[in-house]
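STRUCTURE:
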């Protein structure tokens, strides 16, 4: 098996991995402070299928450009991944137009969206490698397809964001079946919004019907998007190659309960001191999780939701099968107000309130309108709820208490704190999973080298560990 890293090797961003020159695992961009980085060059037109783990742009953002360069094939993902990807790609083209590489158009985005084929969790599918030479109804292993290569695949709930999954591919490689598990981004820590992934044999409910060896191929299953939550006990399968993310490969997360309590205490204290609370949050998952947390207490101030998180929240309410308990989200929403437009925003921000809005790293979006009113108020608070990348405004606030708004550098006087509500496994959870799965080959990606080395050191019970660089080809015999 030939596995080439076109991105995400020793970095977080532009996840894009080419298997046997024909199958693509994700196609993301790396969003930088100036312009996005794209996957390395390869032959787009030879790709027979894309397996898309989840909607985040570091896994999907390159798809329109790749289409412009010749990619035309089925894209396998969950239904909600398509819905969220649609919003994120249409939004990102505006950012891309500002950069030097606007080579693709809205048409490429629409093409990409038309290639999606819906996959349900824990079901087996077959990709015959026909690409778009086959008619649509020939997908998923209809007998009359003519391709000679084939890949069986399954998707497991990855617990990272709604609709996220880990792909298990069984690839016929020189006459021998080889299993490849691609984790995508994973979280085994349960949140209000999602159950953690269940690779752990003790947690997973084994379901004989879905055992890989005995599963009957369902040629029509792509048409049926009813969800099943009876997870396969993946810990008991033989995995030849596992490509594992390592965002937090070297660290453990602090206790989620303690983080949540401190977060709510600070919101309460700030509101009681007549301050406003600005909560920048990523639009997919994090904003909704924060809203549910806020609904656990009563505050003496109104709560507002702004930015792209509004659209994503509506999708989650529309397709509730992908979240743990839609009632929790509905209850949280019942107590908040969606900000309608710029004028509405200008009106509410002058009064005290709790504002949950995108972008999560203070790099653009409505949050920039709010920060102007909050940054120099000592009794107000800015509470960051996720990863703050190098070079982002959010990182600068944390490290230097400064923020750039409208090209002006401002000194931040309000209370600032970052909370760890991560959607990724910490080291402890990754190791637990690696012990359960115990693959023959482990390839570590999607992390900084420091995190990768720390994980590799602790995972030394696995015989073959690879930490490739971008462009490198890992060959597995
Ligand atoms: Zn992600
Ligand atoms: Zn990612």
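SEQUENCE:
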């Amino acid at each position: 098996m030939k596995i080439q890293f076109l991105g995400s090797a020793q970095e977080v961003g532009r996840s894009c991995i080419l298997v046997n020159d024909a199958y693509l695992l994700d196609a993301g961009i790396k969003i930088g402070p100036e312009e996005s980085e794209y996957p390395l060059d390869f032959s787009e037109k030879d790709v027979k299928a894309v397996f898309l783990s989840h909607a985040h742009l570091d896994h999907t953002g390159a798809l329109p450009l790749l289409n412009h360069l010749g990619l035309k094939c089925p894209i396998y993902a969950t239904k909600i991944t398509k819905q969220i990807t649609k919003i994120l790609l249409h939004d990102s083209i505006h950012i891309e137009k500002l950069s030097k590489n606007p080579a693709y158009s809205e048409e490429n985005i629409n093409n990409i969206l038309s290639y999606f084929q819906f996959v349900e969790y824990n079901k087996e599918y077959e990709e015959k490698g026909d690409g778009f030479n086959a008619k649509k109804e020939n997908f998923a292993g209809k007998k009359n397809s003519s391709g000679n290569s084939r890949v069986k695949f399954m998707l497991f709930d990855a617990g990272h964001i709604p609709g996220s999954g880990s792909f298990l591919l069984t690839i016929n490689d020189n006459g021998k079946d080889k299993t490849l598990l691609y984790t995508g981004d994973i979280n085994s820590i349960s949140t209000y919004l999602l159950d953690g992934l269940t690779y752990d044999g003790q947690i997973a409910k084994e379901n004989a019907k879905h055992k890989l060896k005995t599963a009957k191929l369902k040629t029509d299953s792509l048409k049926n998007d009813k969800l099943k939550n009876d997870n396969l006990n993946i810990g008991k399968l033989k995995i030849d190659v596992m490509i594992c993310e390592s965002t937090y490969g070297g660290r453990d997360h602090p206790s989620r309960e303690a983080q949540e309590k401190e977060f709510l205490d600070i919101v309460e204290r700030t509101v009681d001191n007549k301050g406003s609370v600005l909560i920048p949050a990523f639009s997919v998952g994090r904003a909704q999780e924060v809203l549910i947390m806020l609904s656990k207490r009563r505050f003496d101030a109104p709560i507002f939701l702004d930015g792209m998180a509004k659209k994503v929240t509506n999708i989650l309410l529309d397709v509730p099968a992908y979240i743990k308990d839609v009632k929790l989200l509905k209850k949280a929403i019942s107590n908040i107000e969606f900000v309608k437009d710029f004028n509405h925003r200008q009106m509410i921000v002058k009064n005290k309130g709790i504002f949950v809005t995108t972008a999560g790293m203070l790099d653009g979006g409505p949050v920039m309108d709010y920060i102007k009113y909050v940054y120099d108020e000592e009794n107000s608070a800015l509470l960051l709820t996720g990863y703050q990348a190098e070079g982002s405004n959010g990182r600068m606030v944390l490290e230097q208490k400064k923020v750039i708004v409208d090209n002006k550098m401002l000194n931040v006087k309000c209370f600032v704190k970052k909370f760890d509500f991560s959607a990724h496994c910490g080291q402890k959870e990754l190791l637990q999973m690696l012990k359960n799965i115990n693959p023959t080959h482990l390839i570590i990606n999607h992390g900084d080298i420091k995190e990768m080395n720390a994980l590799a050191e602790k995972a030394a019970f696995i015989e073959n560990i690879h930490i490739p660089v971008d462009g490198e080809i890992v060959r597995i015999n």
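REMARK: The domain at 2-251+424-475 is CATH 3.60.15.10 (Metallo-beta-lactamase; Chain A).
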